[in-house]
Amino acid sequence: MRLLSGDARRAVFAPLDDGSGRSEAVVRRLGSAIALGIVVDGEQLPSEAQLAALLNVSTVTLRDALSDLRARGLVTTRRGRGGGSFVRASEEALTELSVGRLRQIGSTELRDLGDVRAAVGGAAARLSACRASASEIARLREILDRLEVAAEGTQQRRIESRYYIDVAAAAQSVRLTMQEIELQAELGQLLWGTPRSATELVLTIASHRRVVDAIEARDGALARELTEAHIGQITAQLIDVHVGLTRRASQPGVRAAALLPYPPAPAGVGP
Amino acid sequence: MSGREGEAIAPVASAGNSVAQQAATVVEAVVERVFHSVAAVRDIALESHLAARERGEPMRDHHITAMRGPLVDLLGRQREIAVGLGVIVSPGLLTDRPLRLEWWQSEPDRDDPVRLEVDLNRHSVGFYDYAAAEWFAVPRRTGRRHVVGPYVDVHGTHRYLLTLTVPVIADGEFLGVAGADVPVARFETLVLRELGDLAADIVVINSEDRVVLSTSAQWLTGSLADFGHEDSSHDVRPLALADSPWRVVVARGRAGNQ
Question: Which of B2, B116, B179 sits opposite A6 (nearest CB)?
Fold first, then answer.
């Protein structure tokens, strides 16, 4: 059954199979689920014991991860009756999360992520030009219309993720779609740290519209070229932000989050 | 490759007609088999509705929950065909809940089926507006069964699917739809087994010109194939399916496919 939201949720609480059993992996998984809006603001997480069992990590590891998420302001814990861990998906908390991640990740990793995004997104766009039906093309346009009127940054990022995922789905490829979902989850953690101006949003939407036009015109080569070029630009911006954060953060007494045009969040950033 | 895939089609010999007929019969039989499962889902819903009415109760949330056991049993018995099935309730039918669905899926690496959970809160960002979905809206509007797909099931099972639905109607009242998800690969296997070796390439296309199934890699499943609707150079035969007109095309391949 075609779903707009749904048991992508289940993947959030699936066992972590990277074998590391590290709390960072738990933080990354839950953090991106919060960033993508798969688990929502105010939602109660399963109990510590349940969550540790679901994710296949020890309760010690899980407690470390929860305390990290609390420090990042993404989770609050209430004691007593009706207590437990609750999701906080505020813009500030998400910004803190992505700034921390942007500082951790190296520029070569960012470039590499961009390379894979271009490969997956570009191929999906090209194949969509061969395979997308009229109703799928109409849905891509509808997503971009929603992106245009979305008020909040978080909402815009989520809708834009939908755009990329739906292009891959319109290519009729389950594997490309799954790749794109994973890439968007990873990207979601980085993008909140890079605020975008109204002009940038307009240009982004215009670029996506040109891709959909090319898909409709059955011009696969153009759809691919435009997609790759846009992802290249976004990657370059991310690298600029990363370099800027790293350089300025080396100055004593400067907190990375304070350098962003957001109100400083209460919690500390990164390790 | 540019443009649509698989364009050149050689004219078909006069024997094509009977081949097309044979292929159409096979495809229709497989589709009927799947709809038979969907009819079983519908019967579960109708029984539950009837039971409520005999007790003089209006339809409530717990009547839908009561279908859970029979639906899970049915899914277990239909593993050869369906990977998901269930009932989607007409908005406003239940007196105590505006929207409701009861849908179960089997997962590749799990023995027990999983219930599909969706966000049915109208005010939330992730609201799942099923009344607008093609597999719900079309049977509601037409009162007839419907097939959607092939399509990539983005947030559900990560499969390439066909979704087949039928309206659930009691005494002229539309109660909702019953449906089943069938992986395209499974549908293909069922058809190919029955097709045997017909002396031509068979391509099944849906109403959006998308290839549902083909016996040749020249027409890839999921791609668009423009065979035209009234073209006499190849044998195009409509299938008696549902409200979603599929067509069977018999074509001779370019590379000496007899």
Answer: B116
